[in-house]
């Protein structure tokens, strides 16, 4: 059944292919984008101009969307970007949650991160707080927890694929290798589409093993 979906981070690494896929499947998409980035929004989407860090100017434009997909985040996260995680990732999810409650939204889809993990503690802490904020709304939600999404501009991690293959075979490292899986971009987009098209009920967590499925 076609849905109307509001997407933040619409011109980003996941936003563009997700919107394209949703449109191809017959869904209606309202895409939030900064004025200077509007031309990068996939054709066919309805553009909502605004700053993802401040929802006051666009929360009234979410309707008639019933599903909210939040994809805003610091590009290429690494341990040196702790300040950006606070100023971008955390601020944007707070704004998104406030807007979703005001809309109101029937289903909130949030991309978090796999945890626990031995690195990226600042990033994980912010995404865990994002999960808490989403849950606190009482809105049915789907929380996806990828560790690293492989694709254009994100290919360096392919060198780790053989190491992951070995780690999955060893009992002592199997659980961590599955939880912190490397997810192909096409699989991540497929998981997001499935989340959008699923009936919203309670809180659903999608971990690395499920995301890695083709």
Describe the model:
It is a single chain. With 214 residues, this protein is of the alpha/beta class. It has a single domain (4-147, 184-211), classed as Rossmann fold (3-Layer(aba) Sandwich), CATH 3.40.50. Helices cover 37% and strands 17% of the residues. It contains 7 helices and 9 strands; from the N terminus they run E-H-E-E-E-H-E-H-E-E-H-H-E-H-E-H. The strands form 2 sheets. Strands 3-2-1-4-5-6-9 form a 7-stranded parallel β-sheet, with helices on both faces. Strand 1 (4-7), helix 1 and strand 2 form a beta-alpha-beta unit. The longest helix is centred in the middle third of the chain and has 21 residues, at 82-102.
Q: What is the succession of H and E elements?
A: EHEEEHEHEEHHEHEH
CATH topology: Rossmann fold
Mean pLDDT: 91
Alpha-carbon Rg, integer: 17 Å
Q: So what's the oligomer here? A: single chain
| Helical run tally | 7
Number of structurally distinct domains: 1
- The top-level CATH class is Alpha Beta
Q: Label the CATH architecture.
A: 3-Layer(aba) Sandwich
Strand order of the biggest β-sheet = 3-2-1-4-5-6-9
Structural class: alpha/beta
Largest sheet: 7 strands, parallel
Based on DSSP secondary structure assignment, what is the total number of beta strands?
A: 9
Terminal CA distance = 22 Å
What are the key terms here?
37% helix, seven-stranded parallel β-sheet, Rossmann fold, alpha/beta, 214 residues
List the helices and strands and how they pair.
Layout: E1 4-7, H1 15-24, E2 28-33, E3 46-49, E4 67-70, H2 82-102, E5 107-111, H3 121-136, E6 141-144, E7 148-150, H4 161-169, H5 174-179, E8 182-184, H6 185-197, E9 203-206, H7 208-211
Parallel strand pairs: 1-2, 1-4, 2-3, 4-5, 5-6, 6-9, 7-8
Helix pairs in contact: 1-6, 2-3
């Amino acid at each position: 059944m076609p849905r109307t979906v509001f997407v933040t981070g619409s011109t980003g690494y996941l936003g563009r292919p997700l919107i394209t896929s949703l449109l191809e499947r017959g869904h209606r998409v309202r895409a939030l984008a900064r004025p200077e980035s509007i031309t990068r929004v996939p054709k066919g989407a309805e553009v909502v101009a605004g700053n993802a860090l401040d929802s006051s100017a666009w929360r009234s434009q979410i309707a008639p969307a019933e599903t909210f997909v939040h994809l805003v985040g610091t590009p290429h996260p690494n341990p040196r970007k702790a300040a950006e995680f606070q100023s971008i990732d955390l601020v944007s999810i707070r704004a998104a949650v406030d807007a979703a409650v005001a809309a109101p939204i029937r289903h909130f889809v949030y991309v978090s991160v796999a945890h626990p993990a031995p690195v990226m503690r600042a990033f994980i802490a912010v995404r865990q707080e994002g999960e808490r904020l989403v849950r606190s709304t009482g809105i049915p939600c789907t929380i996806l927890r990828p560790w690293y999404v492989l694709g254009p501009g994100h290919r360096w991690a392919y060198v780790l694929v053989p190491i992951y293959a070995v780690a999955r075979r060893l009992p002592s490292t199997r659980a961590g290798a599955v939880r912190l899986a490397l997810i192909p971009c096409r699989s991540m987009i497929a998981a997001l589409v499935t989340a959008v098209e699923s009936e919203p009920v309670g809180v659903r967590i999608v971990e690395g093993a499920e995301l890695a499925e083709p």
